[in-house]
Amino acid sequence: MKSILGAGIAGVFCVMSLAAVGGTASAAENPTSTPSAYMAWLAGQESENPGGGAAETLGEFKALSEADQVEFLHIIGDPGHVKDFLEFASRPVSGASAAGSGTKVLNGGDVVLETESGGADGESSAEGTADASGLQASSGWRDGFGSFGAIRAGDRSAWYTKTDKVMGVKVSQVRISVLFHKNNTKIDKIYKGEAGHRNFVPFSEFSNTKPDTWIDARGLAHASTVWTAKLETGSSWTASEEVWCNKAGGGGGALV
């Protein structure tokens, strides 16, 4: 499989952003109508999927003032910033610059879009740190590539995430990671790729393909997946997310 860099974003741009991706809900429940309704919905999400991240989002939401809670619900229901997000999402992060991270601030600071990428020694990914629901990372993860040296052989992992925070509350995140082995001279084996997401905006669904993995002609380890989001209105958004890493721990990722 070739790199997805340069691929296009397909979907209905005027109705959706990453912040508009989450669990499904019926119109009768309308969890975005009031702060108390949203908190009840989050509590239900945590009950259905303990440890999946809903409790963290619920705690962050409860910490907001009542006025900020109302504004939060207004923002996650407003598709107006989708174009800005998609432009941000399609900008690759590569190498070790800025520790493999990037941020864009929108709505006067109410919306923060974050990119993070990094690598780790050992089998962090294989131990479940790329959890498909909570995306909880262990202490084995390190911020930024280039942290595990170009000579030492062994198991390595690399990851790439996009996160959407509204009023400081993490509402959405997608992640792709690759676990591979390198000998003293090159990457010689890929164990697997893993993809995960967390997402707490009602009235939508989110899914992804089984991650593809490969070693390219330059010797870089890759993993990629295709994300598809669907709103209850029938609108959709599709994007490919990829991470890559070389034998020295240098790499990056993209969501395009």
Describe it.
This protein has 256 residues and is an alpha+beta fold. The chain contains five helices and twelve strands. The strands form two sheets. Strands 1, 2, 8, 9, 10, 11 and 12 form a seven-stranded antiparallel sheet that branches. A five-stranded antiparallel sheet has the order 3-4-5-6-7. Strand 9 and strand 10 (221-231) form a beta hairpin. Helix 1 (35-48) runs antiparallel to helix 2. It is elongated and about 55 Å long. The two termini are 16 Å apart. Residues 1-17, 93-100 and 123-151 have low confidence and may be disordered.
Short description:
With 256 residues, the protein is of the alpha+beta class. It is 18% helix and 38% strand.
Give the ordered list of helices and strands: EHHHHEEEHEEEEEEEE
For the record, give the distance between the C-alpha atoms at the N and C termini, rounded to a whole number.
16 Å
Largest sheet: 7 strands, antiparallel
| Gyration radius over CA | 18 Å
Average pLDDT over all residues: 73
Q: Total strand count, please?
A: 12
Q: Which ranges are low-confidence, i.e. pLDDT below 50, for 5 or more consecutive residues?
A: 1-17, 93-100, 123-151
Question: How many helices does DSSP assign?
Answer: 5
The portion of residues assigned to helices is: 10-25%
Going by helix content, strand content and strand pairing, the class is alpha+beta
Strand content: 35-45%
Query: What overall form do the CA principal axes indicate?
Result: elongated
